[in-house]
Amino acid sequence: MFGLVLLIGIPMLFITGLLSYASYNPELSPLNDETPDKGVLGFYLFAWPTHPYWLYRLLQGVHVTLGVVLVPVLLAKLWSVIPKLFEWLPVRSIAHGLERLSLLMLVGGVIFEFVTGIFNIQLYYVFPGSFYRLHFYGAWVFIAAFVVHVCLKIGRMARALRSRSLGDELRTDLAHTVPEPPDPDGLVAASPASPTMTRRGAVGMVGAGSLLLFVVTAGQSIGGRLRATALLAPHNRDPGSGPNSFQVNKTAAKVGITPALVGPTWRLEVHGHGVPRVFTRDQLLAMPQHAAALPIACVEGWSTEDQQWSGLRLADLAALAGVPDAASVLVQSIQPPGPFTRVVLRGNQIHDPRALLALRVNGAHLSLDHGYPARIIVPANPGVNNTKWVHRLTFRA
User: Is the residue at 237 inside a domain?
Assistant: First the structure.
């Protein structure tokens, strides 16, 4: 039963993880690519859409929440096969050696993926390199071993599930709980001790653990009243009140943005065809303003409700730059150099009427932590690609 749950859940984790990677548009520019040496592993990449606008919020919410919820199931599955993990002799033949190698990749891979993923969503940056790269390659190693293992064991799992009624098992009390019959893999002890828990109790305990983790995690992406229950979400603390009181990934102070950098001397440079255009913030505010209701969603799984943004359409800025049919735009922040201080957006992201250089949010000027004096907001775009503290846009045909 635990294996069946993982057989459904793990492919969902893998697919949503791959789609999350695709959402960064890594094949568009080296600036967007956190795994530049991926080679053929990027075969599936495609132009990331802007419809529906909540796509990334749903995708990453499912990925992170499902990963956390599956932890008790994974631990129970590993507990159920502990004898297999430590059997002696480790290798008896070439075939057995290959099976053991796949098992090492399977167990090592799944532990690595779950541990690095949970560390990342809890903001424990203890990785010996880029989280994106480690998690991406670890996922491919694990899924290869997972496919091999499924091919080897799917028949046995199907026979086991058909051998007894699930309802009968869950109704069996402790007095009538008996050991499994001997199996060819040697997982059943030769002289098992008396049971201290029914199979119903084991399944219920694991299910209760998963349900508890769902309750204290899912609210960070679902929002509403459940947001207050997301106790395991570091970014889900009470942000206070007011128009700018919603979650923020990194504060201005944390990345080195000072009031002096965004003071009266700040200018927006718009490059394209011909002489660059330079604007003050007051000049930008004097232009026709457009509005869009969009959330912010982050790779750690947290997201905001829809916020009411207003500012200039990226498509209008592209026209001002003399590139009305722009195929991409390089967005640069005044943030000191580091990851995601420069990103490239696709043509479909530029020309979506909801894609803005935002100057205001919820009827108020942006706060410094939310990107004052100007930030990018694009539908279905990962939060880190909605660049804050923008000072230069370079549109390209």
Answer: no
SS3 267: coil
DSSP-derived secondary structure for 210-229 = HHHHHHTTTHHHH-GGGGGG
pLDDT digits (tens, 9 = 90+) for 36-64: 999 999 999 999 999 999 999 999 999 99
Buried b (16+ CB within 10 A) or exposed e, 217-241: bbbbbbbeebbebbebbebbeeeee
Give the pLDDT confidence of 147-179 residue by residue, as tens digits. 988 998 899 899 989 998 999 999 999 999 998
Q: How many domains in the chain?
A: 2
Given 197, 229, 261, the domain boundary residue is 229
Same domain, 292 and 325: yes
Which residue type, as a one-letter code, is found at position 340? F
Q: What's the pLDDT tens digit per position in 237-259?
A: 667 789 999 999 889 999 999 98
Range of the domain at 336: 252-396
Determine which helix (DSSP H) or strand (DSSP E) holds 145, and give its type and residue range: helix 131-163
In a domain, 243, yes or no: no
pTM over 0.90, yes/no: yes
